[in-house]
Amino acid sequence: MHQLNVSTVYRQELKGRIIQAAAELFSKFGIKAVKMDDVAKHLSISKRTLYEIYANKEELLLEMVKQRDSQLKQHLDGFVQGEDTDVMDCIIEFYSVQVREFATVNPLFFEELHIYPKLVEYFDERGKERKKRAAEFLRMGVKSGYFLKDVNYELIQQMAEDVSKRVFETETYKKYPLEEIFRNLIRMFLRAICTEKGIRRLDEGML
Questions:
Q1: CB distance 191 to 199 below 8 Å
Q2: Running along the chain, 207 residues long, what does each successive block of 10 average in pLDDT?
Q3: What values do phi and psi take at 18, rounded to 5?
Q4: How far apart are CA 207 and CA 187, in angstroms?
Q5: How far apart are CA 17 and CA 22, in angstroms?
Q6: How far apart (Å, rounded) are the C-alpha atoms in residues 144 and 69?
Q7: What one-character DSSP code corresponds to residue 31?
Q8: What is the C-alpha to C-alpha distance for residues 6 and 85, in angstroms, rounded to an integer?
Q9: How many CB atoms within 10 Å of residue 19?
Q10: Could you tell me the CA-to-CA distances from 204 to 92, 110, 195, 198 in Å, in that order?
Q11: For residue 6, what pLDDT is reported?
Q12: What is the pLDDT of residue 207?
């Protein structure tokens, strides 16, 4: 029994190390450029050991993305529970985290994620959930006087999503840093729906 527990702990620890190593390599070089062999070499483990835990790159990617999303959710949930935190604080923090990630990740990573069917399926489901949560925050923002009342927020969300996709389709990131692109896009869309009170609060947040 003790041997089994040690083996289980080691396996869980190794899974964590594999995900961390994959995240570092994919973020730096993109997905296509990194082979499973590269991940194994980076960790000084055998390919067999790696494939025993993750059968292929898509499975590893999916686990990595889910872990990142879980960490983001935990961070935001903790942030929301702050005593002096209001809805605009939460919105600014969410987008600030996203922008900081764009600053540290090769644009190819985001572009190449959509090659993998399981990732696409996961992103579709995640997108639906995030839209629901965004709608809740937008309603709270309207109630708090930060956002305009007479706005079709479902349309605004769709427009923002379409523009984001065009950034990769037109390879705009080759002309401007991804962080700069999305910082400006987020500010543009948020300011467009803000009241004067919301704009002041947004500017204070320095998004």
A1: yes
A2: 62 92 95 96 94 95 94 85 79 89 92 93 92 89 94 92 91 93 92 94 80
A3: -65, -45
A4: 7
A5: 8
A6: 28
A7: S
A8: 42
A9: 21
A10: 10, 30, 14, 10
A11: 57
A12: 63
Are 101 and 71 in contact, with CB atoms under 8 Å apart?
no
CA separation for the pair 58, 167 (Å, rounded): 24
Q: How far is CA 136 from the centre of its chain?
A: 19
- So what's the pLDDT on residue 26? 96
What span, in angstroms and rounded, lies between the C-alpha atoms of 131 and 125? 10
Q: Where are the alpha helices (DSSP H) in the chain?
A: 2-29, 36-43, 47-53, 57-80, 87-104, 107-113, 117-143, 153-169, 178-193, 196-205
Tokens 């991804």 belong to 178
Query: How deeply is 34 buried, as exposed, middle or buried, from its count of CB atoms within 10 A (0-12, 13-18, 19+)?
Result: buried
- Determine the Cα–Cα distance for residues 93 and 207; give it in Å rounded to an integer: 8
Copy the structure tokens of residue 73.
């959710």
Joined tokens for residue 155:
């349309």
DSSP lists the bridge partners of residue 147 as: 194
Sign, Cα dihedral of 168, 174, 177, 183:
negative
Q: Classify 173 as helix, strand or coil.
A: helix
Over its C-alpha atoms, the chain yields an Rg (Å, rounded) of 20
